[in-house]
Each structure stands twice: as C-alpha cells, then as structure tokens.
Amino acid sequence: MLKQILSKLPQKSQKYDSLDSARIDSSNRTSNSGNGVQSLWLEWRQWSPIYFKDVSNLQKQNLFISKLNLCCDVSNFSDPDKTTAELDLKRQTLIELVDFVSSGSAMFNEPAIAIMCKMCAVNLLRVFPPKYRSNSASGEAKDEEPMFDPAWYNLQLVYDLLLRFISYSSLDAKVAKKYVDHSFILKLLDLFESEDPRERNCLKIILHRIYGKFIVHRSFVRKAVSNIIYRFVFEIEKHNGIAELLEIFGSIISGFSVPLNEKHKMFLS
Fold it and tell me: How far apart are CA 200 and CA 205, in angstroms?
C-alpha cells in the first residue's frame, strides 16, 4: 500500500516542478502570438486552478510573476467577443494576487517589479474619450451626476495591487524607480481626468504614496502637479481632478519642515 502511494507522488510534484519553465514558455508564446487574446484565455483555463497554497514557497514567486503576466490584458467590456467567464476569471486572478501581496509573501525583486508595473500600465493607463458634457450657456456649472466606469470592478483591483506594491515595506525604491519613472507618473496624472470619482480618489492616495516612497521623484511630482493647476487656471475651463490634486498639494505643503529650505520657498512663491 505504501509503495503504491509513493509511486503517485512524483507525478503530482512533477506538475509543479515543471511550473517555472512551462509558465515562462507560455508567457512568451502569448506575447509573440498574433492571436494573443485566445492564447491568454487558453492559458488561464490551464493555469488558473493552480493556487499559491498548492505550491511550495520556492515556486510561489514564479507563480506570482506568471499570474501577473496573465493579467496583462485589457478587459474591454464593450467587446462582444469577451465572455463573462473570461472577465470573471481575470477578476478572480486579480483577487488572488491582491491577497498574496497583502499576506506579505510576495518578493518584489526586479523581474516582479517590472511585470507589476507593466500589468498596471496595461490596465490603467488609457486615453479617455472626448468630453461630451457641455457647459451651460450662462457659464454656470450644472449639477451633474458622476459617471461610473463599467470596468471599475477590475480597475479597482489593479489600483489596489498598485497601492500595495508602492506601500510594500521591503520594496527597494532604488530599483523600483526605474519602472515607476517620470513617464509612469505623468500618465498617472493624466488619469485624474477620469469622470469616475472612485478612480480619482484611488489616484490621489497612490500619488501621495509615490511622493512619500520615492524621494528622488518629489520635486518632479510637485512641478508636474503645478503645471496641471496652472493650465487649469490659465488655459482650460474644466479639469475633473483639480479638487484631488489640490488635496495632494495641501498634504505636501503641510509636510514641509520649518524653517523652509530654498527649494520649498521657490515652490510656494
């Protein structure tokens, strides 16, 4: 009886021992395939049943990177070819990733940092359609109902992952700054034009965490936010995220040490 049980163990371990190479090959095929969406769906069906609790600690990091890579696909809710099962499966994968990072088990080495930033960029950094709300003829603002993005339930999970990533205690800012760079920050600032107040609130929290985590980016963040506010005052009539950006400014200014240094005096002048 014992011999029969032991004879089955290599088959089970082989499934997970081959995870590292199989997942890397699978990710490369997805990125190079012309039919990427279909390949991604097939990969999810194959690999999503593998949970972090089912693999050893040594294999969890590779599974983490693999699941992040699988989520590098935009959830287009207006695409009729996207099935509910596909969207639900991606959501479940994102939930599992959030739980894994929240547990403190993730290791953000450079490959993990790179794929995390790529996944967040693919899902979050987007161009909004032209505004179709017009101002009243008298110039007075209308009492408009906020618009809610139908993709928010997935976007919220990606924002949650990004926030936990930026706030991760063991994250090496010297390595992460290569990926959370000026271009990434500017594109995050562009998202403050979102019509969805929930998204703008998430962005406010994340930008504040970036300011606190990446000291090297602080001067750039202050200048970039200032440029948006100046443009709002002198060039454009409306910006959806001005209130949130002013909140960030207030928090930044309240954190200045006294007496003010010359750099902070120039910023306030």
Answer: 9
